[in-house]
Amino acid sequence: MGWPRSVRARTALVVASTAAVILVAIGWWLHRDVYRQGTRIAQEQARAPLLALADQLREGVVPSRRSAVPYEVVATGRSTAVAAGGGMDVFAPGSPHVLPAPPPLSGPTDTDSGWYYTQRYIRIPERRGDGPAGRFDLSGGTYPVLFADIWAGELSTEQAAALGVAPDATLRVHVVVLPDTAEAITDNIYLLLLRAGLVSLVLISAVTYVTVRVALRPVEAIRTATASVTASDPRERVTVPATGHEIAALASTINTTLQRLDEAATRQRRFVADAAHELRSPLASLTVSLEVALAYPDRTDWPGAVATAARQTGRLRSLAEDLLLLARLDAHAPTTGSGTVDLAALVSLLVGQYDLPDRPMTLTADTTAPAYARGSKGDYERLLRNLVDNAARHATSRVQVNVRNQDEQVVLSVHDDGPGIPGEDAERVFERFVRLDDARSRDLGGTGLGLPIARELAHRHRGTLALVPSGVGACFQLRLPRAPAPPDP
């Protein structure tokens, strides 16, 4: 039979199995304890016949063979028993006594009180012959035996003669403790525990099944509600139970997840709309330019038309590359390479090779020592170029790039002397397709994706990118974990 697929059935089965193991352990412990207690009670119950037999012997009376408990009276100087009964008399007449004789006593002992006795485990020898076993067949078994000693010197000559012992003999009364009562009680307890255990397992399984079924009703409601959620419309929310238990926490977490999905879907729709709008502008300009050139070929400045087309095509290519890079970053795709990069050397190289715009501007780098960080050189180059491009578009005449080591971090800042960015827009500039001065940015070739890409790349390398306060212009600061210098080749 296979493992049940239902959570209710599985839980009931696991709980029933666990309860069965616990009940078996408790039953085993109770079985042993009941048997031990029953044996102790049987020993206490055998004490009264032992003391009664001792009193009869002190009065010179030979005990009767009819007895509720097996007993045997032995004495020093005799090879046969003085008296036996209750199952110990089934051994052949005239045969030696079964239980051991006592050591000889020379005077009265503590037995004078009539309450002194001793307990010992003794093995009963095998019975000879095929005669009837009597009420109890004790041969060949080991049983607890209670015994008490009596000195015949305490008796009169007539009493000793009546018992058939010498005047200075020592008598010992043996009473065998039978385990029948303890075994009967134990067997009854065992059967009772077995029936109670089976009924308990059935009840535990049923109660567990019903309880889990009731407890999972909110989960079923959550499943039904979330089944209607689609990627295009994640506005559905589940009902949070008022109980405050784990299922309520689950419902709250699912609602939070659905809210994030809704926000992500909203951002995606806005991103698609913004991307379509950005693509439409250069396409419209390119289409109009080409249609006008084709409509009036004789009056068209073909070099100018081709330059305009090339410029708009370049904008389209740049935008497509940015969109592909954002898609790769959103999908958490692995970087193209990793290692240790000297950001100071990379900044110096970028500043030396950067194409300045067609207006007076200076681009300088301030690096005092190597600054190593782990990551992809290509990603760092793209990040720095985006920051420098943004600064160059908005700078008045100067862009300064600084790199320094600060404790366990590498700090890189790009500072321009442009109009700056208001404090309330310090985070808004990192949103996609956001331009604080839309017309000017479009004219200067910005796509609104440079800073978002730069921040994504910074996060990709366990760093941060933020706009920090500056007296003049805007200052973007990149912080990255500092890496140890690579070994010399």
TrEMBL record:
Alphabetically sorted, this entry's keywords are: Kinase, Membrane, Phosphoprotein, Transferase, Transmembrane, Transmembrane helix, Two-component regulatory system
Domain Histidine kinase: residue ranges: 274-484
Reactions catalysed? ATP + protein L-histidine = ADP + protein N-phospho-L-histidine
Could you confirm whether the keyword Membrane appears in this record? yes
Q: Offer an example of a GO molecular function term for this protein.
A: kinase activity
TM helices/strands, residue ranges? 12-30
Q: What class of enzyme is it?
A: transferase
Its EC number(s): 2.7.13.3
Limits of the HAMP domain: 213-266
Q: Which InterPro entries match?
A: HAMP_dom (IPR003660), HATPase_C_sf (IPR036890), HATPase_dom (IPR003594), His_kinase_dom (IPR005467), HisK_dim/P_dom (IPR003661), HisK_dim/P_sf (IPR036097), Sig_transdc_His_kin-like_C (IPR004358), TCS_sensor_his_kinase (IPR050428)
User: Which compartment or compartments is the protein found in?
Assistant: Cell membrane
PANTHER family, sorted: SENSOR HISTIDINE KINASE TRCS, SENSOR HISTIDINE KINASE YKOH
Name this protein carries in UniProt: histidine kinase
Write down the species: Streptomyces clavifer
